[in-house]
Amino acid sequence: MNRLKTIDIGVLPILVAIMLRFYDLGRGHPGLSIYPAISRNTTTSFHNWFYPSLFPDGSILADKPPVFFWVQGFFIQIMGTGNLALRMPAAIAAVCSVALLFLIVRRTHGKWPAFIASFFLAVIPLDVNFSRGIFLEPVTTSVILVCVYLVVTGVQDVKENRFYWAAGVLGLAFMIKLWQGLLPAPGLAILFVIHYWGSWIKMAKVTLISSIFFSVVAFTWPISVWLTSGSYDSVMHSENVWDMIFGWNLFQRFGSLEYGASHSNGYLWFLTGPMGHIFAISLVPVALVGAVKGLQDIFKGHSFSLLWLVWIILAVAGFGGASVKLSSYWASVTPAVAALTGIGAYWLLAQRESSSSIVRGISYLLLMGGLLYVSKVSFDLSAVAFYFKYTALAILLLTLILPIVVYFKPSRDSVGTGFNKGEKVLTSVIALSLAMILAVNAEVTMFNLMNPRSDTLGRIGFDRIQSPMNSPQVNSSRARLRGTVITAVVRAEVEELNSALAYVQKNREGAKYLLAGDSFNTTARVAFVTGEPVLTLYSEYQDTTVTSLDRLDELVEKGDLRFILASSNFKTMNFRQWGWIARNGRDVTSSSGMDMFGEMRLFALFSVAGQPYLRFNPD
After folding, report:
1. Gap between the Cα atoms of 567 and 499, Å rounded
2. Share of the chain above pLDDT 90, in %
3. What's the CA gap between 475 and 478, in Å, rounded?
4. Per-residue pLDDT at 319
């Protein structure tokens, strides 16, 4: 009966997660198409399955390992190329993550911390946002949590073989999002060392076998691809598969490489600007209290909280100083935030009397600071929706009441086995404070769901509340301006782009390539929609030329390339190629059905000698 009740309370967070992630999931713009294009291509041949490529001809190897593309490709094969198929893997994985977090925290801290943690994960705005997109992170997170569950149960049930399974699953996480999939690895290693029951020699044996399991799963594919490099022309953004793993996806992220959304340049950029509205309101208020409780537990010999602490510390240390500041990094940290929130909240409500007055005092101060932060964010958001102001005032009132209750409550109430009157009043104030923190996160999440954005970020899939106040200063450097090229194709209306592609199909006259695009994102969209070979001119991520002018001359002379689709902003980023297009092409944007005043331009190419190749069909 007790087991049934435990399972019952775990159902509610799962139901909430399902509702928030599947509500109107197929709506909106399809977004950036690099990953969907790769996923679709994995279903076209065994070559493209094993060597996931941006284009149907298998020429450019993807910039990530293949596992996610296999999963998304499966849904595309079953459900077609609509939004629902593209987003289903992330949504399903996110719901599984909520269930897994409940099982893990229930094992380590009990059913009520598990309930709070899983419920909080279900409503965290950042997690919900990424769970409703075409992103890799939710799938990575669910696989990570499977690994965590295996290690925790292996430690508690004294099952050595589960460490081997966990190592293999961790290798699978690496094969989805590479280094982001290894975030919990140090914490898991520490848990293993602390709790392993055998001798040092046996521990070394388990470590060696686990390392073999991990290496086989994580490195069989890259080694195979490296040894058969003649099967593809190049690797996206990289010189080879190892440069893709260690260069593009690791070291370059901490150098001069910069692209993506604008965030503040400080180390704590994830607490400011737009991140404050979708992530910091989840991290700051109670997770820090959970961290204090976790540290106390470690000193008392209960070390399972260490896993979540190390997870967050590693993320802050790694992502804080990254030159590429992407909110996607933190989508793989939300389980640790939710777990510490559950642990901290339950301790504040029901177990705080077991701790010293110093620990309780620090926790009260952290809670008050978190409430002030959330109140400030809510006041900022009141410029977007009026009701955030009332939420902010309620939280501010609780922030003022909390220290008064703590100060005037009789100190002797804190001693003993039960709560007396003063403690009960304090518990009520803490419960209201925690409820308001949960409410703000749910409020932001529901606002995002009910008010989808129609701007560039909304079309990419970031339906996030945006406050006009306290936004970070936008960096207008060349590195930042590349973002206009990255997102240009999503600002084009789908119907207009489809009309232009139909126009190109009618007039291509046997050309090898359907067209050339100014960037990987432009050509990915075309490849995803048409399944035809396309050519990329420029890397908007690395600010480098992909196709030389000599190569373009050669292709035009042979009749293998007759159209170029480019953003008007492309001339700012690569003026030489834009000049070549202007000399060798004619703007047919309006004739193709696209807005002549729009951002995307379609050019029909002339021969190098200046004679037109095409006999244009006006109809």
Report:
1. 17
2. 49
3. 9
4. 85
